[in-house]
Specification:
The chain is built from 15 helices and 20 strands. It has 679 residues and is an alpha+beta fold. It is rod-shaped, with a radius of gyration of 58 Å.
Length: 679
């Protein structure tokens, strides 16, 4: 047999309590190192004694942690060997719950844990551990009242099975281990891998000679039972504890199997050290998962509390920061309000000055540099032929023999969109294929039945429920009144507090960023507008030149003064032109049309069309002389253009008549009336 291993170093601050038949011992472990030990001088018989002993242990060991483990063997715990037929896990648990109520040697509800092992004869062998539920709940409340979290309440067999896996035997080798537990003996039969077969607990005092005889016979009978039940006999029996030499020799004489006494291979605080190493999900643990997870929930609650506090701080800080920024921004916007009005007024004044200057410059450019006049002279000779007849109408033609056969142009209508039904036709799918008559329902059903999915039904997933040990339970157990009461008392307040704690800062953030933060943007936009107006005003001032403004103004005044301003002035100018035409051998007649607005020019300028006719007083006149006179009319007055010149006669032998239109830019309004006799 190998030496029992040394204590395992952990990373948690744990108080491990051993209660063996009234003997109370507690050890404080900090990262695997023993920090304090307490032995209660008096035996503990009930929860009040355990409460008193636990207070003393906390004070003596100076334990400041939160996790507590109990290793218990006593009157409040009973062990049963149960053989069950093969069944599912949920049925097995329900069966064992009823079995525990039947096997319990006490009054009240029972709490139980169980460990299963396979039997060569089929079925299941269950090692059932039973304890009063009031005792388990009482230990839990004792720990809660002191701010502790109970993690484990395990029997001595759990530590013995853990010890069995560390003795160096082969995995399939069957061995028996006898341990002293608070002055009593416990027998555990199992394999070298730590799997258990059965256990027995003897309420005999091994120190008495006659009791030793009974213990030896009971152990021999138990080993024979193991051989009959499992088909394998243990290879050895190992005694763990401080036994006398007389007792050891007596056991070797009463037990036919090899007996190994290993009392010198245990170390101090062995039971508590090994109990600390056993995981809390061990099947022998009587503490339910809802209680075991309280430490995790407590740690998560701290983390969530810190996160919620940070969330609160962030929400309140964001709201305060937004309010500070908003107040500063609003003050800045209010300060710039009056300045913005002044800047807008000054900007409008400068823009008006620049627009007036641009208008004057435009008038000057329009009058001083009119577009070049290119009259199209269309001679209308006597006896000339009119327009060509037989001109074909627009359309498409194709040659047919010697003639041309006209065909109407083809009506190019866009084709109907693919996949859309054409008016008056049946529906079409992709590629122009006709859809079924039911509007595509049959096609959709065919598409839905893809390979591998034909005929498949979509069913709702089954509801799988698990207990705290990972085993399925029925809905009756889920909606048990005690479970609902526990959820309302333990879970619901924390969930409501979490929801409220997260909802209020979330609401603060929502209000802050939905209603308050946009006000900052509005105030900033007002400040941006003021800055933009100020920038535009600076640009207007920087681009202004007083010298250029004076020059443009002078040119504007001179140009406007040179325009015809009234019908009297126009009549005088046309009379002078008519006198010039008479001296050149022409008769001149004119006709005034209503004034028209000048395109792309200020509104006060108009264009007055004047239809002029020059007719030779002789039978024929020089063509070039007539053109020179027409050019003289255009160049003699600013803002005059000529369009629509038509010459009647033969330009080679001499034209007899010239008709054209003068476009005269003037300031005569559309409401003024022309004097009589203007023609």
């Amino acid at each position: 047999m190998s030496v029992i291993p040394k204590p395992h170093k952990g990373f948690k601050d744990v108080l491990t309590v051993r209660i063996f038949h009234g003997h109370f011992k507690a050890v404080h472990f900090l990262r695997g190192v023993v920090k304090g030990v307490y032995h209660h001088p008096d035996p503990v018989a009930n929860l009040d004694d355990i409460s008193h002993a636990l207070d003393r242990a906390l004070a003596v060991t100076a334990f400041k942690g939160k996790l507590v483990t109990f290793l218990y063997e006593g009157e409040a715990m009973d062990h049963s060997f149960v053989t069950t037929p093969p069944m599912e896990a949920k049925d097995l648990r329900l069966f064992l719950a009823r079995k525990a109520e039947q096997e319990k040697p006490f009054e009240g509800k029972a709490a139980f844990s169980f460990t299963t092992t396979a039997s060569p004869k089929g079925g299941h062998i269950v090692l059932l551990t039973i304890a009063p539920k009031a005792f388990v709940d009482g230990l839990t409340e004792l720990c809660r009242a002191r701010g502790l979290f109970i993690q484990k309440l395990i029997p001595a067999s759990a530590v013995m099975g853990h010890l069995m896996s560390q003795m160096g035997y082969a995995r399939e080798t069957v061995i028996g281990v006898v341990a002293e537990v608070g002055g009593r003996l416990s027998l555990l039969v199992g394999k070298g891998d730590g799997s258990l077969m059965f256990d027995r607990h003897f309420n005999y005092d091994w120190r008495q000679t006659k009791e030793a005889e009974r213990i030896g016979r009971e152990i021999e009978r138990s080993l024979l039972f193991a051989k009959q039940q499992f088909g394998q006999a243990p290879e050895a029996v190992i005694f763990i504890g401080d036994y006398t030499d007389e007792f050891s020799e007596r056991m070797k004489s009463l037990i036919t199997l090899p007996v190994v006494i290993g009392q010198h291979q245990t170390y101090e605080h062995y039971w508590l050290t090994e109990a600390r190493q056993i995981k809390r999900i061990h099947p022998s643990n009587l503490i339910p998962a809802s209680v075991r997870s309280e430490s995790t929930r407590h740690a998560l609650t701290k983390v969530v509390t810190v996160l919620v506090a940070l969330f609160w701080i962030g929400a309140l800080g964001s709201a305060a920061l937004v309010e500070v920024i908003l107040a500063a921004t609003v003050r800045g916007a209010e300060n710039q309000g009056s300045e913005l009005a002044r800047l807008q007024e000054e900007k409008e004044r400068w823009q008006g000055a620049r627009e007036e200057l641009a208008r004057r410059k435009e008038i000057v450019d329009l009058i001083a540099s009119p577009p070049p006049s290119r009259p199209r002279l269309v001679p209308r000779l006597s006896g000339g032929r009119g327009p060509r007849r037989g001109r074909a109408e627009p359309g498409r033609h194709r040659r047919a023999g010697r003639g041309m056969e006209r065909r109407p142009a083809r009506d190019h209508r866009p084709p109907p969109a693919r996949g859309r039904p054409h008016p008056g036709r049946a529906g079409e799918g992709a590629g122009g294929r006709p859809l079924p008559a039911d509007g595509g329902g049959e096609l959709a059903e065919r598409v839905a039945r893809r390979p591998g999915q034909r005929g498949r039904r979509h069913t709702r997933p089954a509801l799988h429920l698990r207990t705290e040990r990972g085993l399925p339970v029925s809905l009756d157990a889920l909606f048990d009144r005690e479970n609902i009461r526990f959820w309302i008392r333990r879970r619901l307040p924390s969930k409501v507090a979490l929801v409220v704690g997260m909802a209020i800062p979330a609401l603060i953030l929502y209000v802050t960023f939905t209603y308050r933060a946009p006000l900052i943007q509005q105030a900033q936009q007002q400040m941006v507008v003021a800055n933009a107006v100020e920038s535009e005003l600076i640009g207007l001032k920087s681009g202004w030149s007083d010298e250029e403004a004076r020059r443009i103004t002078d040119d504007y005044r001179a140009t406007v003064d040179s325009l015809v301003g009234s019908y009297d002035e126009l009549a005088g100018w046309l009379a002078d032109v008519g006198e010039t035409a008479r001296l050149s051998g022409f008769r001149m007649a004119y006709q005034l049309s209503p004034p028209l607005p000048v395109e792309e020019a200020p509104a006060e300028l108009t264009r007055l069309p004047v239809s002029v006719t020059l007719e030779s007083t002789q039978q024929s006149s020089g063509y070039l002389t007539m053109l020179a006179l027409m050019r003289h009319l255009v160049e003699s007055r600013p803002g005059v253009t000529m369009t629509g010149a038509v010459v009647h006669g033969d330009p080679v032998r001499g034209a007899t008549k010239l008709e054209f239109t003068l476009g005269l830019v003037t300031t005569i309004g559309a409401g003024d009336t022309a004097p009589e006799g203007a023609v």
